[in-house]
Every structure is written in C-alpha cells, then in structure tokens.
Amino acid sequence: MGDGPLADAYDAGVRAAAPPVDAATGAALRFLSAAIAARSVVEVGTGCGTSGIWLLRGMVPEGILTTVDVNAAYQDYARSAFARAGFGAGRARLIRGTALEVLPRLTDGGYDMVSVDADQVSYPAYLEEALRLLRPGGVVVFNNVMVGSDEPDGPLRVPGPAEIAVREVMQRMREDESFIPLLVPVGEGLLAAIRP
After folding, report:
1. What is the set of domains in the chain, with CATH numbers?
2. If DSSP codes are grouped into helix, strand and coil, which group holds residue 47?
3. Which of 62, 70, 190, 191 keeps 20 to 30 A from 117, CA to CA?
4. Are 142 and 190 in contact (CB under 8 A)?
5. SS3 of 133, please?
6. Alpha helices in 23-117 (DSSP H)
7. How far, in Å, CA of 40 to CA of 101, rounded?
8. Per residue in 26-59, is it b (16+ CB within 10 Å) or e — as a string?
9. What pLDDT was estimated at residue 4?
10. Lowest mean pLDDT among 1-15, 40-54, 82-96, 161-175
C-alpha cells in the first residue's frame, strides 16, 4: 500500500476486523470499473473504504459510488478515507443498512457495476438484485469466491452454507447464457460477469 489514504484504510480494516481487499484485488476492481467507464457503482460491504477507493479511482471523474454496510463505524471511517483520498462528498453515497433491505430501493437498470464483498451466504440473493440493478453491459463482481474450509477435504465433509451459496452463484453464471463470466485468481478470488 504505497499511498497514505489507502494504507490508512487498509490498516483500519485490519484493526476493525473488516477484512480489506488486498492490492491485487483492488487493482482488478479499479481495472474493471475503468474498462466500462463506470459512472454509477453499487458496493455491498463498505468496510473501512479500501475497495471503495479502488472503485472510485477507476470510475469516470463525475461517477458516484453507492456503498452499503450495516456498520456505522465502518462507514464513518470510509467517508473520511474517501475525503482523504481526494473524493468530494458528492462522489460517494453511503447508506447504512442490510443490503437486502437497501438494494430493492435502488433504481432498476441504474448502475454500471455491482461489487459485492459481504456475507457470502447471501450471494445468490445479491446476484438477483444485481441483475435488476445493472444496465445492459453492466458488470457484477463477487469477492471471496475461493472459499475454503478448515476441515480436511474428504468424502464425509459437508460444505458449509457460505461454500454452498458461492457454488450456486458460480454455477448460475457458468450455465446462464445471459452472463459472460470470468474467475480472476487474485486475493480470495474475484468472480466477475458481464450482463450483455
């Protein structure tokens, strides 16, 4: 983490047990938002602002990030991190609440990108919301899709709820021809898909 605001947000996330995205994952998020010239991005899981800074750095200069988190302290820290990184108050809209309560209130087809780094068990529900929120050609991104288990692999191991949910999202993207998916092996795994 070479620059101050990003390094500070990273350190705050580690201290607060809000796992920040690593630099490679952040760079991938920035690349994806820049590649589609994103003007409007929804982020599920604000944390302390690391992924939001990466997304904002890739978005067009007038782009607006809408970021959702249940934790007030994280959002307060993220707001100050965005300001320290040079993004004015109008560039990020922080909404406190659970994503499954907030996302249904957002505009259908109003977003270029939906980035999810939150409760993995809810990934299938977040995918449904993303499909409604994305414009044609929009991109949905899920972080932490290479979930592992502390249990040794074997014939008697039963996958946990998070692992089952992530597999469901991956399978849907693979089998549904309305997606063009890509698994990016950075950090804990990034699953991105274009909605043609």
Report:
1. 4-195 (3.40.50.150)
2. coil
3. 62
4. yes
5. helix
6. 23-35, 50-58, 72-84, 99-102
7. 19
8. bebbbebbeebebbbbbbbbbbbbbbbbbbbbbb
9. 81
10. 1-15
131 C-beta neighbours (distance < 10 Å), count: 18
Question: Helices H, strands E: what count in the chain?
Answer: 7, 7
Whether the full predicted model's pTM is greater than 0.85, yes or no, is yes
The total number of residues written for the chain in this structure: 196
DSSP 127: H
**pLDDT tens profile 120-139:** 999 999 999 999 999 999 99
Give every strand in the sheet of 92-96, ordered side by side. Answer: 92-96, 64-69, 40-44, 111-116, 134-143, 190-195, 180-184
- The span from the CA of 96 to the CA of 187, in Å, is 26
